[in-house]
């Protein structure tokens, strides 16, 4: 199985990663999301595209934005949404992930939205569903370990396209804890496929994975050099919960060397936008003056996330708009 997220006709069966997703599928998701953006302004915010379908939110790791926007998106598509309370579920009694999935399939689940601290957990579920003949059930990866966060990558692409229109003349910088970031990986794969000519990663060497250049990016340890003349800045959170050993001196030292301040933002193009997937650590990776400033598009990212997640789920469910 070369690309386990596509079916034999090349259509999206699961959304597991942006890596290897054809440009036509990426663009189709963004275009479909465009058709859903205006729905928030309508009196009736619902469309019946997933009526009668059951979407299970399985969040084995904390989330504010992703879990909530998936729930809103599912409801706007008229699906029945079931939020499994993981701490009160049989997972806490030692039930295996796949046994939990088998039981939810027995309840006629149509789609699982899965966040898990283990990289590869959504792949494992997708493979299992094929093996037990439940391949009509769809998986959406809502973030697995440090591997991938494809809907965050897609909403980031939507945001960039909204503000910058064309990917093919942009310089995009991703700043901070690249090593532990599933968002950075998902963004880099999507940006490359959509034709961004220059992708930069900026961070201390301890937080930059080896071999980044092989992903087609330019690596900078000097933030001032890395931010020069960029169009888009994507700040990342320091993922302290995924760090083992001493990779950094202190949060204050990190801010001094890599925090996005107004002075550093002035090195980018005057119309550069500032993004952050959240949750944000003010005073660690980003200064409040920038996070709340006129170039920040951090809250619009969250709003676009609803439309992008509606697009992904409606496409998986066999409808575009
Ligand atoms: N960006 C993101 O994944 O945020 P949450 O952890 O709040 O879902």
Give an overview of the whole structure.
This protein has helices spanning 23-37, 65-76, 97-105, 121-131, 150-164, 182-193, 223-226, 251-258, 262-265, 288-291, 298-316, and strands spanning 54-59, 80-83, 111-116, 138-144, 171-175, 198-202, 218-220, 232-235, 273-275. The two termini are 29 Å apart. It is globular. Strand 5 (171-175), helix 6 (182-193) and strand 6 (198-202) form a beta-alpha-beta unit. It has two domains: 23-149 and 303-316, Aspartate/ornithine carbamoyltransferase (Rossmann fold); 150-299, Aspartate/ornithine carbamoyltransferase (Rossmann fold), CATH 3.40.50. It has 321 residues and is an alpha/beta fold. Helices cover 35% and strands 13% of the residues. The strands form two sheets. Strands 7-6-5-8-9 form a five-stranded parallel sheet. A four-stranded parallel sheet has the order 2-1-3-4, with helices on both faces. It binds phosphoric acid mono(formamide)ester.
Please specify the SSE layout and strand pairing:
Blueprint: H1 23-37, E1 54-59, H2 65-76, E2 80-83, H3 97-105, E3 111-116, H4 121-131, E4 138-144, H5 150-164, E5 171-175, H6 182-193, E6 198-202, E7 218-220, H7 223-226, E8 232-235, H8 251-258, H9 262-265, E9 273-275, H10 288-291, H11 298-316
Parallel strand pairs: 1-2, 1-3, 3-4, 5-6, 5-8, 6-7, 8-9
Unreliable segments (pLDDT under 50, ≥5 consecutive)? none
Spell out which ligands are present. phosphoric acid mono(formamide)ester
Strand content: 5-15%
Q: Quickly give the CATH architecture of the largest domain.
A: 3-Layer(aba) Sandwich
Strand order of the largest sheet: 7-6-5-8-9
Rg from alpha-carbon coordinates? 19 Å
Structural class: alpha/beta
Provide the CATH superfamily of the largest domain: Aspartate/ornithine carbamoyltransferase
Largest sheet: 5 strands, parallel
Count all strands and give the number: 9
CATH topology of the largest domain: the name is Rossmann fold
Shape category? globular
Q: How are helices and strands ordered from N to C? A: HEHEHEHEHEHEEHEHHEHH
């Amino acid at each position: 199985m070369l690309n386990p997220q596509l079916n034999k006709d090349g259509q999206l069966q699961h959304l597991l990663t942006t890596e290897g997703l054809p440009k036509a599928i990426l663009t189709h998701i963004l275009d479909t999301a465009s058709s859903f953006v205006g729905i928030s302004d309508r009196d009736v915010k619902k469309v019946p595209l997933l009526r009668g379908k059951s979407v299970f939110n399985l969040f084995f790791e904390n989330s504010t934005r992703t879990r909530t926007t998936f729930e809103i998106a599912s409801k706007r598509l008229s699906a029945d949404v079931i939020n499994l309370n993981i701490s009160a579920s049989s997972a806490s009694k030692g039930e295996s992930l796949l046994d939990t999935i088998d039981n939810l399939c027995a309840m006629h689940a149509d789609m699982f939205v899965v966040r898990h601290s283990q990289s590869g957990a959504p792949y494992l579920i997708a493979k299992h569903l094929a093996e037990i003949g439940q391949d009509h059930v769809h998986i959406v990866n809502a973030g697995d370990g440090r591997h991938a966060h494809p809907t965050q990558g897609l909403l980031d692409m939507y945001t960039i396209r909204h503000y910058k229109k064309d990917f093919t003349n942009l310089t995009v910088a991703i700043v901070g804890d690249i090593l532990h970031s599933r968002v950075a990986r998902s963004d880099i794969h999507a940006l490359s496929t959509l034709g961004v000519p220059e992708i930069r990663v900026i961070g201390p060497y301890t937080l930059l994975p080896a071999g980044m250049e092989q992903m087609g990016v330019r690596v900078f340890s000097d933030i001032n050099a890395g931010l020069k003349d960029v169009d888009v800045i994507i700040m990342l959170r320091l993922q302290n919960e995924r760090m083992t050993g001493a990779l950094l001196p202190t949060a204050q030292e990190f801010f001094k060397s890599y925090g996005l301040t107004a002075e550093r933002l002035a090195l980018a193009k005057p119309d550069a936008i500032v993004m952050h997937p959240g949750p944000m650590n003010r005073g660690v990776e980003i200064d409040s003056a920038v996070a709340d400033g006129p170039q920040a598009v951090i809250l619009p990212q969250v709003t676009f996330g609803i439309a992008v997640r509606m697009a992904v789920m409606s496409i998986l469910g066999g409808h575009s708009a």
